[in-house]
Amino acid sequence: MNLAIFLEQILNGLITGSMYALIGSGIALVYGTMRVLNLAHGEFYMLGGYFTFYLIVQIGLSPLLAIPLAVAIAFCLGALIQKLTIEYLIVRENWAFTTIAATLGLSIVLQNAALLMFGEQFNTVPYYVQGVMSIGDIRLPWQRVLIFVVALATIAGMTWLLKYTRLGWSIRATSQDRDAAQVVGIPVRRIYMICFGLAAALGALAAAMLAPINAINPWAGIPILLKGFVVVILGGLGSFPGAIIGGLFLGVVEAVGVQLTSSEWRDVISFTLMIAVIWWRPWGVFGTK
Amino acid sequence: MSTDPLMLVVEDVSVLYGNYQVLWDVSMQAHAGQVVAVLGPNGSGKSTILKAIMGLTPVRSGRVIFNGEDITNRPAHQMIELGMSMVLERRRLFTGMTVYENVMLGAYHKSIQKHAKERLEWVESLFPIIAERRDQIAGKMSGGEQQMVAIARALMSRPKLLLMDEPYLGLTPRIVNQIADIIRKVNAEGIAVIFNEQNVKLSFGISNYGYLLESGRVVLNGTGEEMMNSDVIRRVYLGE
């Protein structure tokens, strides 16, 4: 294999991986704070894709306006859905397991709602940027470069938020000890709502960035959820930094694996990796026991 | 009895975990500036009563009144604003965060935020370790050190009443004495303290008043001296 192709594959892997990181970090944020495995996370990705599609293609907004708007709508929808469904289940003692059934049901409802509203056909949006970047022998479409830049900026922004803002401190405190967080005056139930909204927003952003490449239909969230699980299992369930590293790592492993085999093997590679991790290091490759 | 104003009144409080009743019509009081000990064996409900006061566990019947205001079943995160703070059992620090972050989270509430700087100086004067270990990850400290950080975090709001759930649990005798000194120091700052503990002798070294709980009911209450001289305590708890 020549070096340029190899480097190109690594870069492509990092780009895909940055999207996996956005998806996985949403799952991690929700699990980390409220110990809820959100099986409807993929549907926020799917809805984010539809919001983007409608705002850009049907209404004709510029992507610069449409993408933030789609993300904001997803945030509000996520927070609202949390308030109306999961909120009632997690406040009850020993009812946490019910959230698995509830989010699975939510996922089915949202898929069928999308089917009724938007139909089953695949929808895409035009590329946000045209052309191909070339450095030496490495060639990458600008669209992919843009995806990577937006993902990295978002990850940096989220890291800053968690580390330095009042909201971030309260999210970290809530995820480490819910009772202690309440005792120091953190309204944990509002934090849950905000985290669910943030997770939905991160999923929607991934969909908005991928919409020109990955067509959206009502079931677009399912493979995304599965990849998100691989990411959080690699990174250690509930760890935000773990999900970022896990996402990038998965992207690169898939890209290199596909280069060595063929593209049909992509999912085989990632799920084999996941099973191996569950077998050998159930707390995650990058997590701690 | 103290002549200071009544600060906390617990009136016939019952608490159930599922169908299992852990507190039966528990009543107790604390005056401003007092140190009150809640005694009892494991499973007597002595932790539950503190959690019920703080709003961490729902009260099924009865009332909790703090400075004349009915605070029964008010969510825990609102207690800080009223002047009540709590050190949870087994410290419960945010173990992945630094000492500084832990202590500053004690000043999370908007009403305290503006005083955060002076409060930090105050708790640092009470616990020099807070300044010395500022950037250490809290989970990496020893049990006694963690307890100090936990108390410092609870004091950032400069509460009128500090609840301490088993402050001596899992600590060596030397550290237990240090923590007892700290409770005295905190009390000397005019802060009332209610703590629970199994060891009767340890408790009455520092408290002015005590309650003995057994199977979720108050079976005895009185001043430290009265408690130490009571037959039940002498027979069952001091083995005389």
Automatic annotation (TrEMBL), chain A:
<feature type="transmembrane region" description="Helical">
    <location>
        <begin position="94"/>
        <end position="118"/>
    </location>
</feature>
<dbReference type="Pfam" id="PF02653">
    <property type="entry name" value="BPD_transp_2"/>
</dbReference>
<feature type="transmembrane region" description="Helical">
    <location>
        <begin position="12"/>
        <end position="31"/>
    </location>
</feature>
<keyword id="KW-0029">Amino-acid transport</keyword>
<keyword id="KW-0812">Transmembrane</keyword>
<feature type="transmembrane region" description="Helical">
    <location>
        <begin position="191"/>
        <end position="216"/>
    </location>
</feature>
<dbReference type="InterPro" id="IPR052157">
    <property type="entry name" value="BCAA_transport_permease"/>
</dbReference>
<keyword id="KW-0813">Transport</keyword>
<dbReference type="InterPro" id="IPR001851">
    <property type="entry name" value="ABC_transp_permease"/>
</dbReference>
<feature type="transmembrane region" description="Helical">
    <location>
        <begin position="228"/>
        <end position="253"/>
    </location>
</feature>
<feature type="transmembrane region" description="Helical">
    <location>
        <begin position="51"/>
        <end position="82"/>
    </location>
</feature>
<protein>
    <submittedName>
        <fullName>Branched-chain amino acid ABC transporter permease</fullName>
    </submittedName>
</protein>
<feature type="transmembrane region" description="Helical">
    <location>
        <begin position="142"/>
        <end position="162"/>
    </location>
</feature>
<comment type="similarity">
    <text>Belongs to the binding-protein-dependent transport system permease family. LivHM subfamily.</text>
</comment>
<keyword id="KW-1133">Transmembrane helix</keyword>
<keyword id="KW-0472">Membrane</keyword>
<keyword id="KW-1003">Cell membrane</keyword>
Automatic annotation (TrEMBL), chain B:
<comment type="similarity">
    <text>Belongs to the ABC transporter superfamily.</text>
</comment>
<keyword id="KW-0813">Transport</keyword>
<dbReference type="InterPro" id="IPR052156">
    <property type="entry name" value="BCAA_Transport_ATP-bd_LivF"/>
</dbReference>
<dbReference type="Pfam" id="PF00005">
    <property type="entry name" value="ABC_tran"/>
</dbReference>
<feature type="domain" description="ABC transporter">
    <location>
        <begin position="8"/>
        <end position="240"/>
    </location>
</feature>
<protein>
    <submittedName>
        <fullName>ABC transporter ATP-binding protein</fullName>
    </submittedName>
</protein>
<dbReference type="InterPro" id="IPR027417">
    <property type="entry name" value="P-loop_NTPase"/>
</dbReference>
<keyword id="KW-0547">Nucleotide-binding</keyword>
<keyword id="KW-0067">ATP-binding</keyword>
<dbReference type="InterPro" id="IPR003439">
    <property type="entry name" value="ABC_transporter-like_ATP-bd"/>
</dbReference>
<dbReference type="InterPro" id="IPR017871">
    <property type="entry name" value="ABC_transporter-like_CS"/>
</dbReference>
<keyword id="KW-0029">Amino-acid transport</keyword>
<dbReference type="GO" id="GO:0005524">
    <property type="term" value="F:ATP binding"/>
</dbReference>
<dbReference type="InterPro" id="IPR003593">
    <property type="entry name" value="AAA+_ATPase"/>
</dbReference>
